[in-house]
Here is the input.
Amino acid sequence: MGRSTSGRRVLSAVTRLAGALLPLAEPAVTAGQKKRAGRSGVRHRKITPYLFLIVPLAFLITFTYVPAANLIWFSVTDWDGIDKTKNIVGADNFIEIFTDPEVFRVFYVSLFYIAASFIQMGLALYFATVLSFSTRFRNLFKGILFFPYLINGVAIGLMFLYFFQPDGTLDSLLKAVGLQEVTTQWLGNPDAVNPSLAATSVWRYTGLNFVLFLGAIQSIPSQLYEAADLDGANRFQQFRFIIVPGIKRIISLSFILAISGSLAVFEIPFIMTGGANGSATFVIETIRQAFTFRQVGLASAMAVVLLVIVLIVTLVQRKLLPDDEVNLT
Amino acid sequence: MAKKHIAAAFLATFALILTGCTAGGDSGGGDGKPSGDITVLTNRTDIVDTVFQDYKKTFEAKYPGTNVTFEAITDYEGEVNTRLSTKDYGDVLLIPSQVLPTQFSQFFEPLGNKDDLAKKYRFLNDKSYDGTQYGIPTFGSANGIVYNKKVWSDAGVKGLPTTPAAFIADLQLIKNNTQAIPYYTNYKDVWPLSQWQGPQGFTGKTTVVKDRDSSDAPWSAGSEENIIDGLIYDIVSNGLSEPDPLTTAWESSKPALAKGEIGTMLLGSWSVIQMQEAATAAGTDPADIGYMPFPYQTDGKYNVTIAGDFNNAINVNSSNKVTARAWIDWFTDESGYSELSGALPTAIDGATPDTLKDLDAAGVNYVQLDAPENPSLDSDIYNAAEIDLFGGIYRQKLVDIARGAADGDKESYFAQLNQKWAEARAGAGS
Here is the structure.
């Protein structure tokens, strides 16, 4: 039996690795082990799980691990993206990333998005709390808040491009309420461009945070609120002592997603400004290195650096908030 | 045990993937006569189902037994660059601009001796290496400035500007006397800024690329880069370009120029026919679209650089090279593609198209740049320096500085460019 459990342990590790791709694998294993107890069934019993695993693993390896391995391989070469020979240059690419101030400057842009993601989480938490109590038209408001997340990123980029144009929607709106002196070139002004883009990002992703928070809040048993009501707790106290502790895990998950998302911002600035006017993010800079300057090796190294940074952020966060057995990622 | 099984599963997976890759056969085309199937990659998604179908019929009638299939690709450069790492990139394709001359032989079939082909064709310098030709240009373009004649004459401009300063003065007249935006950079789309590199050679020096690559300060006063980028800077810093460059759009700039809302844009001569079409669509007179040389004269004459556009080449892995070659020869000599594009024909004795009559009228001297001795040196340097001469990111920065959106001024930026160039040149081992 020892062998069987160890097999199972390995298998469940693989299953965890494969994540959502493998919903069928585990039930198949248990069924096989329960029913086929006969001696001739032993062989089948051992092979069956792996047969089931072949298909999802094939996808996983082909589309995740092989490209990732290639990326790491490219990152130590000087490949230009075309040539058939790739010369190994060791850590040169990584040294260049950490010594070239221009490559590193893009992290400054990420700060805008990190700041914006906190605003975004605050807004989402506020709306989720308000709408978890019985509010008039709450389903309508839920729909309105979640709707932007359903729109394609390219459409959002184009929409906000018109929104921010000189004499576009935003300027007209500000003029209509007598605030014409605050209008500026929202994308042309180097001080305004990053906040404008980050605000677009907030508009887009608040809905997702909102739904995550709302779902978690609604899973809190209603007796707790009733008990709190009887004890004379007001709405804010309910929020502070029931809701926040109840959805702590979702908040910390959102935190990881926000940080890694802020470092990897791409769609909105790429479509709206193409990274011009000091709005290039880390991913846009990576794309420029790869496809404009033909330094695929360097760009791959940048991608590896981004991966490592996100891993570090996640690890640090887990160390700081260890209460996290339920794996929500 | 369990580990072994997993390993077996991995192996099986790889086997599955590999068999998927090696499937597929080839057909037709031994030695001699063209026959069988070929696949032709093209960037012309707009006419692949119309004009190209006529080409197919004519070609197949001339060479019975052949069958041409087109594959039109929207993001041609990006997609084909990636496909070069496989063997599957058609039989005939257009050489992506980022393939270096030293790499041609890895991907393309030699088409013959360059000197032999030069008796019949021009614009061969770009896609040859070591005396061997790898691509034949589909057509050639001249590099100058497209403008709305009506706007310029309404503003009171007489004659073409002969110096950059006169060009600025003319744009100022447009700003003062008309409603039009004098110059439109198309900043946001990036590639229109790359067009500024096109006129290189306007001083009449055919060695301009070699000069640049042997200099540690190509942006020093009096050099071509200094004049080109200095002109952009002056246009923008004098407020002669669009007010908010971050919200520009190429497609809408065409009708705007045709309608006289925009006065001027620096673009290759390929743009003339598109502007004329935009004029027809907008209900204005296509004859208002004019084309002028870069505002610089040497010994009282304009020099206009002409160069090949995309080049047709044969996939080195093609199984039907005979038919592929027949297609390229037919396409270059008989299809009439260059006429359709309003461009200079590849054949030496081809006629100048109507779209460039303005340049002939201005008595310009057409210049073809020399082939550099080390064809990859230029791109080695500008890639390492991260100065995309044929891109536009560093010119976006220039525009930002000129409009006060980034720190610095013309001199400090040129000094910075010179420094980066010198460092990259040292690294490129020249």
Q: What stands out?
A: The mean pLDDT of chain A is 81.
